[in-house]
Amino acid sequence: MSTTLLLIARRLGAAVLTLLLVSVVVFTISSLLPGDAAQETLGQSATPEAVAALRAQLGLNEPAHLRYLHWLGGLLTGDPGRSMANNLPVREIIAGRLPKSLLLAGLTAAVAVPVALAIGILSAMYQGSRLDRALNVVTLSMVAVPEFLVATVAVLVFAVKLRWLPSLTMIPEDASLGDFLRAYALPVMTLCFVIIAQMARMTRAAVIDQLSQPYVEMAALKGLRPARVAFVHALPNAIGPIVNAVALSLSYLLGGAIIVETIFNYPGIASLMVDAVTSRDMPLLQACAMVFCTAYLLLVLIADVCAILANPRLRNQ
Amino acid sequence: MTEAVSSTLGTEPTPAAPVGLRRQALMSASGWVGLGIVVFWTLVAIFGPFLAPYRVGAIVAADVFEPFSAQHLLGSDYLGRDVLSRVLSGARYTVGLALAAALLASTVGGALALFAAVSGRWIDEVVSRLMDAMISIPSKIFALVMVAAFGSSIPLLLLIAAVTYVPGAYRIARSLAVGLNQMDYVQVARARGEGRFYIARVEILPNMINPMLADFGLRFVFVVLLLSGMSFLGLGVQPPHADLGSLVRENTSGLGDGAPAILMPALAIATLTIGVNLLIDSLPTRARRMAGGA
Known about the structure:
The complex is a heterodimer. By secondary structure, chain A is mostly helical. Chain A is built from 14 helices and no strands. Chain A is globular, with a radius of gyration of 24 Å. By secondary structure, chain B is mainly alpha-helical. Chain B contains 12 helices and no strands. In chain B, α4 (83-118) packs antiparallel against α5 (121-135). The longest helix of chain B is centred in the last third of the chain and has 37 residues, at 196-232. The model of chain B is unreliable at 1-23 and 286-294 (pLDDT under 50). Classes of the chains: A mainly alpha, B mainly alpha. At the A-B interface, α1, α6, α7, α8 and α11 of A face α5, α6, α9 and α11 of B.
């Protein structure tokens, strides 16, 4: 057990270190701004005195490494500064948006994971069959389709032609469960499209990896039915790799959310970030970027820890 | 599934393959479809603007968001411009930018990996850590931060896309190079007293090329999706230039009419990326397995 804990602790340490490096990269890029933030905010007609005053107020006169440390300290204590667009604390803006994005991600995962696992396990069990090859071509095509095409076609079919679903995601305060589901149907459907394909492909690979082990061959030689071999013998051992695959594919949600939240005008953190880029609101942008990177690292970390825990060689020590 | 096939990767399969092996050695049907699509888009990217029936920026249709017609095969856009002409010219931006960015990413990633593999442990460690940190930033987030900081002119977009995918190419190339570095023939070359760069260039590089080509195809797909996504958000290619993603964005108001102006450019992107994916998937497994997944 201690070896396992040690491995996990080391992995955790590496994740923290990576996050720190990520913060350096994000800060460096976003403070290399040509022109400077004070000039940008006040516009071309500002007096030099006003610009100098704002520069001092924003702390732009300090050397870069001190600004980085201030910024990092602010992030760690939960105060990543003020938005330059509307002067609200970044923390408040993000706190209002983050739960909405998490809800969208949660709903997507709830739909995508069971479907993807079913497709992945099925095509692994019938590896090489016509079904498997057909699913391969289908999922391979699905991962390559841009989200905005899926969203556009979905809106065209379900909102414009059939008029079943709203094309923008707006939830009134007193929404019933039906309204709620209708409002979320299109964004969730769009996000699921790519995620399911990705996850099914990785699940298939994980299960096939197990099915090619000698003990599975042994079980088959004993005369067990393929379903029993797959579900009773192979699957328990494949759970670790499968959870690993699921966590890694969920990280694709982050990129997909940016397009989907924008298209459906969904008030989540991804559309917030796109707005921050458009208005060049650097404090907000940096904080959003760090939220996304943390979420991504967290998912990868979960995937890695599951892989460690699932390794039978480490389980009984 | 032998040397003969993998060495002809990307070109016509050898017709001299033994009849018995033929079924196995040739690409699958989906692979042929993929190859066909890739060849089609390559031709469009090269000759598209010459084939365009109208000038790209000219307002030629009587009405906006016209449906398919004989004068305007793919209808007209939100200003009454010919969609077919716009797609033919947009494809050049999409394919050209993605090709250049993927090439840059694979070359730089591959070169860094070779350098790290034949250099000492410290250099390898430093470069690898840095790449690990960069790969931990989701590509769209990275691109958004870069665009916010530097703007989105075409050379910058090219650079942004290339930088975004260098770490992925590096990671794959490094694992290949480190593996090859342990091979007996490399040890022999080292014992013979060959220099580091001779070993990298003559002994390791030639054996990395095939898997790196498959990886290059994947990078190309990623770049196409990334750049058209950015253009769709209005943060990519800026007017008066337009890639396929920009075409989708500028015609969003036609969605209510179900105008071809919005669907056609989006479908064009999807066929391009699906085509490349199908082609890579049917490459000989050896090359593909080593190139890894997404």
